[in-house]
Design a protein that fits this description.
4 domains; 4% strand; globular
Length: 287
């Protein structure tokens, strides 16, 4: 395997801190490289200790082994100087999340964090921050939210679908997203899964806008949105639109999500109950 191709595979994988599937890696390579060849290269990279392989079959994810992570965690200022200035508390937080996974303290779901939260009394944002956000978010248009959203729907579909998908590691550009949504033209050099993700976001946004008078912080809304966002993306076809009933892990993290279905159900209902009481929309967004 040529050295430059090896480096290219590692570069692609390193763009996805939470791991990436083989389809996304293949989409980032030059044409002419088949999946079987790529699988052989990935195996060599794993044997050399340059990447890690987690999961199995279609759920397999590949992550980069970054030798500089430990250095950044010990001295976060070497990282933050090249980005944005951080306070000491921010630097400590950065050090914690960039430390090698072996050095992190395993944690589970903090149940009291949700139980102790008091809607409209406790707040993650200061009054000053809430007032500022309300000011810059004011459209100065005296219309129901659903009516205004309909007017800007086309722009909303493209911009929000693109940005939301990027958070999940999608590599479509804004122009690629525009072509896909407006003309149905998928990028032939990218995986079908990436196109599916963007189209799923489009469906979910249209559902929210068109059902603005009917939706709310309830099971109907949340599970329907989940079904649309997860359509054709999960290993189990019956999973979209349902609460999780099996234990899961998060690649590259020492956090252990709730595993007992009854507790997942209980805290899902508690979140809906509390968020439905919150009057401040920016505070609601944290949930």
């Amino acid at each position: 395997m040529k050295e430059e191709r090896k480096q290219r595979v590692v570069q692609i994988i390193s763009k996805f801190p939470d791991g990436v599937g083989i389809d996304e890696i293949h989409a980032g390579l030059e044409k002419g490289v088949n999946i079987r060849t790529l699988q052989r290269w990935i195996k060599q990279l794993a044997e050399e200790g340059l990447i890690e392989i987690n999961g199995a079959a279609r759920a397999t994810r590949y992550t980069s082994v970054n030798e500089d992570v430990g250095h950044l965690a010990e001295k976060p200022e070497t990282y933050t100087k090249s980005l944005i200035p951080l306070r000491e508390a921010g630097k400590k937080a950065l050090a914690m999340v960039t430390a090698p996974i072996q050095q992190r303290l395993p944690v589970g779901y903090q149940q009291d964090f949700l139980k102790s939260y008091r809607p409209n009394i406790d707040s993650y944002l200061s009054l000053r921050e809430r007032e500022y956000l309300a000011k810059i978010g004011d459209t100065q248009i005296n219309q129901p939210a659903g009516t205004y959203a309909q007017q800007i729907l086309n722009r909303l579909l493209i911009d929000l679908s693109w940005n939301s998908s990027r958070l999940e590691g999608n590599t479509y550009s804004l122009l690629d997203t525009k072509r896909l949504i407006e003309f149905g033209e998928a990028d032939s050099e990218k995986s079908a899964k990436e196109a599916q993700m963007i189209l799923n976001h489009k469906d979910a946004i249209e559902f929210i806008v068109q059902s603005a008078d009917e939706i709310g912080y309830n099971r109907y809304t949340v599970l329907n949105v989940h079904a649309m966002l997860a359509n054709n993306l999960l290993p189990h076809p019956e999973a979209p639109g349902r609460l999780r009933s099996m234990a899961v892990g998060i690649t590259g993290s020492i956090f252990t999500p709730l595993a007992i279905p009854q507790l997942v159900e209980e805290y899902f209902d508690l979140i809906l109950e509390k968020v439905g009481q919150i009057k401040e929309p920016f505070e609601q967004s944290f949930f």
